[in-house]
Specification:
Layout lengths: L1 E5 L6 H10 L5 E4 L4 H10 L7 E3 L13 E5 L5 E5 L11 H10 L3 E3 L6 E6 L2 E6 L12 E8 L2 E8 L15
Parallel strand pairs: 1-2, 2-3, 5-6, 6-8
Antiparallel strand pairs: 1-9, 4-5, 7-8, 9-10
Length: about 180
Amino acid sequence: MQILVLSDTHGRYDLLRKVIFEHDSADMIVHCGDGEYETERFLQEHPEFIPRVLQVRGNCDHDPAIPLSRLIPLPFGHKALALHGHQYLSDEFPENLVRLAHVNGADLVLFGHTHQRLDRYTDGVHLFNPGSTTQPRDPFSPSFGLIDILEGGILTSHGELRPSPGPFEGLFGWD
């Protein structure tokens, strides 16, 4: 099973759509918050994706129908906890997410908010932040995540979003 993970798209429907269509073979798409409007627009325009898309509410999202977190059963006995993460920023971050995963029986935590990539394995838990698809706050390009759930474990990776050549080339400081 492959999961496409997005976060912090902040109104950029064009980029959300681009990443989803470039990875439309993913079995599941998880948006970790701050993308309520563009995710809803995408699902309205492409209802065939509805069964595969899960989202959680970020601090910039306002629809109370979108949950703050989701516990997602995965193949081979794995379980993911998806949340935005803004509620858990403290001096203990991200270790507090490991404790939260243990309490919920999860071995994978998907989160956003920081706009910074993170891929760490600690105390039996994968902590994974895909970074921001639109506004990275680290030295990397805008990004997303791909996670493969296998019988032997969980494989995580980040992908970079590169602009299409055209009138906006160079707008984000890319070469």
